[in-house]
């Protein structure tokens, strides 16, 4: 009889132990569960705008309000930050190092505590590298390396900043502002003023709002451009064989005109063998071949070279790019053209014109730092 009782007792204990090992641990039904945080980026990774705390409402139904506690250091004294009836709390300014939430009943008694969270402002992604840009008509296309995405699965998005540029001191001004955000490694800044230089920088943000330090700053200047300009050669149609990047009389950008005008930038000339040539049309206009190989697009053209341009004619060949140095009444300007097609009597080309005086920037900027 004793053996049977002992057997039954042993079986019962074994069953209880099995149930204890397989059943999940029951959380406190009076406690706020799953406390999490979301930082609010400001542009300074060490000083976010604040932190948003969120938690699950206790399952017991006894919760009437919540006390939110924080402390400046992990071993510091807890301070009451706020009392709220909402399952969220926005703590403005630099966050505390740690937080937890206590549940209050209808009498104001604290009846349960949430998990404690630690806010580590140093848990950030690396700064995006390789920031480059393409000068466009009233826009700038930015691009950079995906190193921040590759560094961690916690990546969420990028923030793009811009500021004005002081040409007299060759520095970015301090008026940095958020230009926008994106999840891709490229960003189009639009609605810009051609000839107005701006500085750009990019940061990477994690899922919980940690912002990286900024990338290296980048300077770019939008410029005018157009596609598929159609110009005849002077021998066939002298009334439509001249071109002005800027018509200073009409103030029009990109004009086809008659070769009788004395303010033309260049004309298209046909040689005896049928080839077509760009020819500077007046004193003050020089030109040169951009590279000894074709380029894929107008946006492939970099800065105009500081020297090597001359008052010489150059054959128009499809795929090749040409740069121009042009003396206007307000100073020197730079321009570029890429030939799309050469017909029997005309040339089709894309062109760009930099309205900023003395600025050789025509498209892709070299990747180099600038002063802030």
Structure commentary:
This protein has 372 residues and is mostly beta strands. It has 3 domains: 86 residues, Immunoglobulins (Immunoglobulin-like), CATH 2.60.40.10; 89 residues, Sandwich (Immunoglobulin-like); 130 residues. It contains 2 helices and 26 strands. Strands 3, 4, 6, 7 and 8 form a 5-stranded antiparallel beta sheet that branches. Strands 11, 12, 13, 15 and 16 form a 5-stranded antiparallel beta sheet that branches. Strands 17-26-25-24-22 form a 5-stranded antiparallel beta sheet, with no helix packed on it. Strand 20 and strand 21 form a beta hairpin. The chain starts with a helix and ends in an 18-residue tail after the last strand.
Spell out the blueprint of helices and strands.
Blueprint: H1 2-22, E1 33-40, E2 50-56, E3 65-71, E4 79-84, E5 88-92, E6 98-104, E7 110-113, E8 117-118, E9 132-136, E10 139-143, H2 147-151, E11 155-166, E12 171-172, E13 177-182, E14 186-189, E15 198-206, E16 218-220, E17 224-232, E18 242-247, E19 252-257, E20 266-270, E21 276-280, E22 285-289, E23 314-315, E24 321-328, E25 331-342, E26 346-354
Antiparallel strand pairs: 1-2, 2-5, 3-4, 3-6, 6-7, 6-8, 9-10, 10-14, 11-12, 11-13, 11-15, 15-16, 17-26, 18-19, 18-20, 20-21, 21-23, 22-24, 24-25, 25-26
Helix percent band: under 10%
Compute the number of helices: 2
Distance between the ends: 91 Å
Query: How many structural domains in the coordinates?
Result: 3
| Unreliable spans | 1-26, 364-372
Quaternary form:
single chain
The overall average pLDDT, rounded, is 91
Number of strands: 26
> Rough shape?
rod-shaped
Provide the β-strand percentage band.
Answer: 35-45%
Could you state the order of secondary-structure elements as H and E? HEEEEEEEEEEHEEEEEEEEEEEEEEEE
Helical/strand content category: mainly beta
- Rg over CA atoms, rounded to whole Å, is 34 Å
Largest sheet: 5 strands, antiparallel
